[in-house]
Structure formats: C-alpha cells, structure tokens
Amino acid sequence: MSTIVLVNLHKRFGDFTAVRCTALTVGAGRFMVLLGPSGCGKTTTLRMIAGLELPTSGQILIDGEDVTALRARQRDIAFVFQMFALYPHMTVRNNIAFPLKNEHVPRRKIANRVEAAARMLRIEDILDRKTGGLSGGDRQRVALGRAIVRQPKAFLMDEPLGTLDADFRELMCLELRKLHDALSATTVYVTHDQSEAMAMADDIVVMNQGVVLQSGTPHEIYHFPATVFVGNFIGSPPMNFLAVDGLVSIGHEQVQLHGAPVPVPRCDAAADRVLLGIRPEHVVLGEQGPLRGKVVADEYLGSHQVFVIETALGIVRARAGKNERLAAGSPVGLSFRTERVLLYDAVTERLLPAAGRAPFLTGDGHG
C-alpha cells in the first residue's frame, strides 16, 4: 500500500489549461475515484500520476518520494486502460505474464504469480485460450490480471468498464471492489459515471474544467455538495436549487421563498443572493406548504416514484413512496425537511457554512 500526494499540480497544453493547481492525497489502501464530465481533467491527472504526462508545474509524491520527473516504468504503478490493450495472438497466460517477462522475473515466479492472479479473477479455465475470441468481461479480467501480477505500489484505472454493457458493468463494479479489498491496494480510478463512483469509492474527487471542486466520502459528496455543480452532477434525479428572496445574514434561521417563510439551519455566513438546495427525497408533498406547484409528470420506479412539479420558481423534483397518488395537473404544496436544507451563494455557487455542520472537503483530498 502506498500514499500518493499531488502538490499544486498544473498542466497546460499550449494555451489550454487541462488541470489547475490540484492538491490531493490518496491514502494508503484507499480506493479514490476521480469523477467528472468529459474534458474535466481527470484522465490528464491520472496520466500525470502514471508518468505518461509531465506536469507543467507541481509535484507528485509516492510514499514521500518525489517522482515528478521519473518515467512511467520507474514509478512501480500498474495502469489499466479503457481499451484493454491485449495481444490477440497471445494466450491469456502469456498476456498476463508479459510485463513480468519484460522485467526478467524468473520463470517459476512468473508461473506462480500468473496462477495466483487467475485464481483470484476466476479465469483459470481460459489461461490457454487466445484473447482475441474472449468476451468483453473476460478480456477485462485478463487486463486486470496483467496489472495484478506486477504487485505494484498502486493501481491506476482509466474508465476500465466503459465498453461493457450496463448489467455486466454493475457486476464488474462489485468484482473490482472485492479485488481491491483482497489486495489491500491503493487505487485511483477515473470515471464519468456517478453510479460507478458511489458503488466503489472510499473517496470521490469531483472535477470540472480542470479544477477539483470537492473531495470526500460518497456520503459527504451526496449529502453536502460543496458547489451547485456537484449537487447537479451527483444524484439521480439531481438536487433542486431554488432562488431565495433577498440576502441571508449571519445567524439567519429563516429565508423567504417566493414570499413565504421557510425555516433553514442557522447560517454562519452572509450572501446577497442565495440558492436553497434540497434533495428530492427531502421534499415533502402535501395540501399545504410554503411553495405551491402543479404536478406535470410522474416517473414510477417500482420501489418509489419521482414527481416533477412546476412552481413559480421553476421545476422541483420530489421523491415519494410507490403508493403516493397525484395525477398530472394536480395542485400540491411543497415543504422541506429543515435539517436537510442547504444554502448556496448564488454568485460563487459555493455552499454556505451552517452551525454545527462538519466542514466539507475541497481540493486537499481525504483519507
């Protein structure tokens, strides 16, 4: 297990800045997911950790050693790509053994490591088959096996499940997490899929436009998104954001929402323009409420349903029980679970601190 530390990492390609002043710590044995939309800088960050890209400025430390200027092969890190990069003319056994042969590891040790990796990945029965005719799932396991046999300091994975179908991707999420736990490895994993991140991560780092917006556990990221972008990106359906009337002052415990008072957790900061953030499951539907609306759609999901409600402040989504009955066009009142209300500065789009709430983490990693 190794600790990876990124110190003010910055990467430019000509006039384009791909990664800005990133500071993160990946704790030993942690499974950290870099999450964000395409082009947010997550893959560039991973490639810099691997040594496949050199940073414009900043440092990369592995177990306290500065590896910023070292080549990829000198960092003792295994990289698993989205495209499996296997040799189709070779057997599974030879594909897995390939990196060890390049390092001139003794034959007996190679054989033992390959067999051990195959048992762990449950692919002993295909060791002597060519990889060209294997299913996507089996090829993924072979690619993982090739990384495992090296026994590296850390595993780096760049959207390794991106080419798999949805059902098998869900299964492989579980398999990857079990594998991580069995190896007690340090893993950095890149994805744009929030479901993968929430299913596997010890820590999630949300990035956008080259900047780390928030770093924390899945619980912290979901329940206390540090910015409006994080609240919109994490959660399905995403967090609701509603404009508050006027400013919010320090110590405030109530806001005006379309002229109606709404209780909120006591605010420890002031802002001229404010957004109220609330997850759909914390919107309460009833005959009365500080905000009124009309049901325009109902998404029935078996265990629950999501009502889409048109209000004077825009669309609000509310999660309700599967037996709730509200026809399209029905008027409805909306209120909010006070302890779950979050307030955001509408200008900076950052979360305003509230009394008694643990601070969220941004930019400096977790663990």
In CATH terms, the superfamily of the largest domain is P-loop containing nucleotide triphosphate hydrolases
CATH topology of the largest domain: Rossmann fold
Q: Segments where pLDDT lies below 50 for 5+ residues?
A: 363-367
> What percentage of the residues does DSSP assign to strands (E)?
25-35%
How far apart are the termini?
13 Å
Going by helix content, strand content and strand pairing, the class is alpha+beta
How many separate helices? Answer: 8
Number of domains: 2
User: Rg, please?
Assistant: 24 Å
Proportion of helical residues: 10-25%
What is the overall pLDDT average? 90
Question: Major beta sheet, specifics?
Answer: 6 strands, mixed
How many DSSP E strands?
Answer: 20
CATH-derived architecture of the largest domain = 3-Layer(aba) Sandwich
Helix and strand succession? EEEHEEEHHHEHEHEEHHEEEEEEEEEE
Characterise the protein shown here:
- The protein contains 8 helices and 20 strands.
- The protein is α+β, with helices and mostly antiparallel strands.
- It folds into 2 domains: 4-223, Rossmann fold (3-Layer(aba) Sandwich), CATH 3.40.50.300; 238-345, Nucleic acid-binding proteins (OB fold (Dihydrolipoamide Acetyltransferase, E2P)), CATH 2.40.50.
- The chain has a 6-stranded mixed sheet, sandwiched between helices. A 5-stranded antiparallel sheet has the order 15-19-16-17-18, with no helix packed on it. It has a 4-stranded antiparallel sheet with strand order 2-1-4-5, covered by helices on one side.
- A hairpin with a 2-residue loop joins strand 12 (254-257) and strand 13 (260-263).
- Helix 3 crosses helix 4 (136-148).
